[in-house]
Amino acid sequence: MPKKVHFTKMQGAGNDYIYIDSSLYKIKDPTTAAITLSDRHKGIGSDGLVLIGRSPSPEADFTMRIFNADGSEAMMCGNASRCIGKYVYEKKLTQETDIRLSTLSGIKKLQLQVKGHQVKAVTVDMLEPQLENEAQFHTSSKLPEGTFVSMGNPHYVIFTDEINRIADDGPVLEEHEAFPDRCNIEFAKVERDGSIRMRVWERGSGVTMACGTGACATAVAAVLTGRAQRDSDIIMDGGKLHIHWDEADNHVYMTGPAEFVFEGDVKI
User: Fold this and answer.
1) CA–CA distance, 165 with 54 (Å, rounded to integer)
2) Is residue 216 among the annotated active site residues?
3) Pick the catalytic residue: 83, 183, 211, 216?
4) What's the mean pLDDT when you consider all of the chain?
5) Longest Cα separation, the chain
6) Is the dihedral of CA 135, 73, 76, 220 positive or negative?
7) Residue 135: is its pLDDT beyond 80?
8) pLDDT 10s digits, 4-44
9) pTM strictly above 0.85
10) Measured between alpha carbons, how far is 25 from 211 in angstroms, rounded to an integer?
């Protein structure tokens, strides 16, 4: 029998998810819940479902599980991480402004920028980018020129003036044989002011307004291909993120907003 669950919808740069405190509500089938709730016509509407938990390990403060709109579980989401920082602080689950978040791609450190008891922005230490994808070099079909970057989840960044082709080319590239576990796809171009305009096809969700890990991957790819320095503003359909790839520790730092949209109760 369905039970009533309290949810909060949040967005970071337009990347919207449904957030549920899993310490209060046990979601037995998060895959089905993500598909049902994410439907923009018959459900709440979102890019996916995020479950926030208390960490059983002293190495982290909270945990995140994230399920895409198609029900598949994701390793990491930068925009969702920032939203969790705002959620746990403003809902008084913590008084700390430095938070350790356990994800499937490791523990991420969040630094909250607080003013007047409200979180105005969050910086996430996204750790080191990984640049190798062996499967890419053993494919029989041609892959468009691009740069593979993993930020805990796989991304393939293509610099092109035709970034709006992402809706047509994204689904094909996501399933390309070079990516056995599928891949997030970014089309990007450097603007005259040095910012980088990017559109994303997210693995399991399709075209989304923004992608935090995708912004990080795009910034890294821009440095590797000589298109940008180590500080970049990534402009996506839903807003802007600032990315810093630190030369000293090789970590990528992502800074951006997080906002509440609405909340309510739903039967799952």
Assistant:
1) 41
2) no
3) 211
4) 95
5) 57
6) positive
7) no
8) 999 999 999 999 999 999 999 999 999 999 999 999 999 99
9) yes
10) 27
pLDDT band, very low/low/confident/very high, at 134 (cuts 50, 70, 90): low
Spell out the residues 6+ positions from residue 65 whose beta carbon is closer than 8 angstroms to its own. Answer: 22, 30, 50, 51, 53, 73, 104
| Rounded Cα gap, residues 77 and 212, in angstroms | 6
Q: For this structure, is 77 an active site residue?
A: yes
Residue 144 near residue 158, CB atoms below 8 Å: yes
**How far is C-alpha 4 from the chain's CA centre?**
27
Q: Do the Cβ atoms of 69 and 204 come closer than 8 Å? A: yes
Select from 184, 239, 188 the least CA-distant residue to 209.
Answer: 239
101 burial (CB, 10 Å; 0-12 / 13-18 / 19+) is buried
Q: What is the DSSP letter of 227?
A: S
Q: Which of 77, 83, 183, 216 is catalytic?
A: 77
Amino acid code (one letter) for 37: L
Reported as type and span, the H/E element at residue 14 is none
